[in-house]
Every structure is written in C-alpha cells, then in structure tokens.
Protein 1
Amino acid sequence: MMLSVRGLTVSYGPIGAVHGIDLEIGAGEIVALIGANGAGKTTTVKAIAGLLPFGGSVTLDGTPLRPGAAERNLRAGIALVPEGRGILGRMTVEENLLMGTYCRTDRRAAAADLAGMYDRFPILADRRAGLASLLSGGEQQMLAIARALLSRPRLLLLDEPSLGLAPKMASFVFELVASLRADGLTVLLVEQKARHTLKIADRAYLLELGRVVTSGPARALADDPVISQTFLGGR
Ligand code: ATP
C-alpha cells in the first residue's frame, strides 16, 4: 500500500474528532472518504497532510510520517487541495501556480510543468496575469488543483473540490479527478456528493462521528440498499 493509516486519532483540545481510523490507499487508486458534515473527513486529510497533531500511525511507502510535518510531507509527495481551495486572491493566477513549485529544486522541469498546466487549462493561461480573486469558483478550483499538481505529488488529497460549484463545473471537476489516474496519480477524495464520488472512485470509506462505519469497492457501496437509504439519500 502507498499510504497506510492505522488507529488514527485526532482531537481539537479536549474534543475528539477522529477516533481510531484505519485506511489504506494503493498506488494508482482513487479512494473516497464520504460521510455527513462533522464526520471527520477534513480532520483526517489534514492529519495525513501533516497539518494536525495525531495519534496512531500514518506511513507512506512504509515510512512513518511525523505529525505536523506538512512541508516534509509535501516534499515526500503528498499535496493537499484544501476545503475552500486556499487561493490567494490578491496574487495573480501565475503567482498562485508558482507557489505550487516552491518546494522543487528542478527549476527547468518545473517551468516545463507550468507550461504544460497552461496547455491543460487554457483558461488559466488566458488569465495568468490577472488576480486570482477574479476567477469564478470553478476556475479557482481548477487553479487550486493545478497548483497542487505543480508540486509533482504522488498522492493528491482533495477536500470537497465540488463544494459550492454550479452543477456543470462540479461535473468538470469530477471528470478532472477521474483523469488524474491516467497521469499515474493516487487520489484521496473527500466529498459530500457521495453518489457522484462513488462513480469515479475505486474504493470508499464511509465515516460517521470520527469512525469508519463501512468500506469497500465504491460500486458495492453505491449498490448497497441500506447504505444507499441511510447515507446517500436513497435512489
Ligand atoms: P465537513 O464536511 O463539515 O468539513 P468533516 O467530515 O470534514 O465535515 P471535520 O471538519 O473533520 O468533519 O470535523 C470533525 C469534528 O471535529 C466535528 O465535530 C467538528 O465540529 C470538529 N472540529 C473540526 N474542526 C475543529 C476545530 N478547529 N476546533 C474544534 N473542533 C473542530
């Protein structure tokens, strides 16, 4: 397994948010974390990214990751697209993208990757000199994902990338996530839009109140009548 999480616990002060989660992600998989508001999805991905102290163990290719070592994790190949996107609106589109390359030392390859990103997302090329705050919500999500890709991650953590987007743009984002697999990326996708998510994911974990209540192949979860009724809002 590329990423292995064992007995993950996270608390905010005295309040426990994640109570012993186990999860695994194999190379090249798209794994979804689904569950209601407050289930602990964001807390889990932040802990994996190194942004929160945690108990238990998280290993990447067998190497333990230290809690709170976000920059080290980024260099090890874990990139996070945070909930709310984390775009710096008063900087230009290009400045936001360049931030994605700051941890790299291969400047020439990074410049080539930036050019490649503009080919892939022509809207970002058109707007490269404009302020990021002037992009639409969907374009900002595209920018956030492109910025994360520019760190050349092996594991991409995406926290609610479709949140607040118009349906057409949300579909575009789901297609984009599905296409990342072809780039050889491994993805942990946190989403509220469970049905859509289960269509593009290989496997999924359903969280409730900081625990995994069920996990398995995404298609099996989507087809399970009890899960469908209880967690996915029926058919
Ligand atoms: P959402 O979809 O709303 O982001 P989630 O599944 O990602 O939900 P978390 O944001 O991880 O859930 O929250 C898990 C629990 O931790 C919730 O009970 C939440 O109230 C609590 N929590 C989250 N962030 C904080 C914080 N900064 N301080 C205190 N409690 C927090």
Protein 2
Amino acid sequence: ISSLPKEKSQLSLYDGYWIPTWSMPGVLAFQKYFQARETDILLVTPPKAGTTWFKAILFALVNRMRYLDLQEHPLLTNISHALVPLLDVDIYNKKKVPDLNSFASPRLFATHLPFDLLPTSVKGSSCKIVYVCRNPKDNFVSLWHFMNRVYSTTNSLEEDFDKFCRGVSLYGPYWDHVLSYWKPIIEKQAQKILFLKYEEMKEQPTTHLKRIAEFLECPFSPEEDAKGTINDILQLCSFDNLSNLDVNKSGKWRFPEHNNTLFRQGIDHASFFRKGNSGDWVNYFTPQMTERLDHIIEEKFHGTGLKF
Ligand code: A3P
C-alpha cells in the first residue's frame, strides 16, 4: 500500500485503486476471512452511485414475503445501511473477526470494492453480484457534495474535479471500477454479475426491478403482478418516500467502536439523500470540464460497448 501524502483526502493506492486509508484493515480482513455462500447476494457500487437506494430495493425485494405488511416494514424505521452492511467498512472493521455463519440465507451484503479486490472466495463462488454505476459526471457532483458535507473537506469543485479526472477519488479510478465489473461480463466469464446504471433504474424502474428479481431467482409471480407488489417496492424505496422518513431526516449512522472517528461520531442519515436525480451535473460543469471528462469517458470506454 503506498500513500501519497500530497493527496489530502487520505486515500491509499492499493492494487491500483484509491481506498480510504482508515478502511484498509477492513478491506484486508474482508479479503482474508470472508467465506462466500452460493446463495449470497452482494451489492457493489462506487460511492454515490445509488448505494442507499439499491440497498433498500434489494432488501425489500429479497424479503418481500417476510414483510407483507408495508406499514411495519423495517425500511420505515431503519436506514438501508443498517439493513445491508458494507462488508469491509461495517463488518470487518472491528478488532475481532466477526462470525457471519449465523446470518440466514440469502445473506445480503454490500461493498464499494472493485472486482479485482473482491475476496477470492467471492470470485470463486457462484454468489450473485448486483453492480450499479452512474454517469461519471453526476457521480462526481454527488461525491463532491458528500465529501464536503460529511468529511468536511473544503476542496473546491475544480480541485476535486481535477483529482477525479486523474483517477484519485474514493475507490477510483472511477472508469477502472466500472470496467472491472463490465469486462467479466463481456468476456463471458461471469454469469453472476448483473450490471445496472442508476439512470436506467430511474427511467424504467419496473423493467429493471423485474430484471433484478429474475437475476436473483426470485421473479414476481402473476399474483404479485396483480397485487401491485412491484409498485409497492418502488414506492417504498423512492427518493421522496425514503428521504422524508424521520429515521432518514434526523438519524445518525454511528458505530461506537469503529476505528474511524467519523463513523464513531456518526454520519447524518440525511447526507445520503440530496437531489436523487439524473443530470444535475449540468448545474456545475463548465464547458471545459465537460470537454475534459467527455474525452476521458470516450477514451476509457472506447470499444467496450459501454456508454454514459
Ligand atoms: P445526489 O447527490 O445526486 O442527489 P449513495 O447512496 O451511493 O451514497 O448515493 C447517494 C446518491 O443517491 C445521492 O445522489 C442521493 O440523493 C441519491 N439517492 C439516495 N436515495 C435515493 C433514492 N431512493 N432514489 C434515487 N436516488 C437516491
């Protein structure tokens, strides 16, 4: 692991990716100790690509038979991060290696790690990976807001944009992260990855929720179709609904024993909900920024069939 002291963001370059330095013990423990089950479901996202949203969607989808009464649904009183933990950040970042054997199957977990850094036990198992990425421009804008609000960084938009373009961002380079999950699909090595974009879920939520359900081998039955279950899940997990719940407006995401001060003090749940739209980047980018990032996107994704 080599750290660049000049980069104030406290990121460490680990196997080509910029990982938060404080989370490295958790990453290494996750890689070393996690034993995947074939029934496991892993949500993977670059930060700010819709983790909070897709955690809610996957939780509601997979547990829909358990929580038939929507008025009593756990998502009404818990932020989705409390229901679907990040393995390296929330679970393995403790002094004692946790025992995950007692978790009932299917276990639902999340991580921000790129494919290359997943534990061998995950890569070698047929567990399912739902990967969600986002238009890099919106992802950058969302990340910049989050870093300033939560990490109290005071970097200007221009400063952070320059770093993002150079690949220096949480779990970046962004394009390498995306391609690390896209390449196994196009090389037909991975049947177990479902690749989604934030924008497509926004545009055609029903289609993509059905796609996710089929991929996870829990498709909606005709009875559920008739009952409107798909719509219920989408409504429950919508930005308007989640961002207006008391738990998400006022709570804090806190781990009293976490090795990171920020997590000990707590992150406002509200900071995970900002606008929840596609295309906000137009309000922030100058023509020069657009040109620079378009050029990078064109170069990095050229010939891969992936477009943003
Ligand atoms: P914006 O900052 O563009 O509004 P993450 O969960 O990975 O941290 O990503 C946060 C981004 O997802 C934020 O984007 C946030 O507003 C948006 N988001 C949170 N909940 C959402 C939901 N239910 N539907 C759509 N977007 C949501």
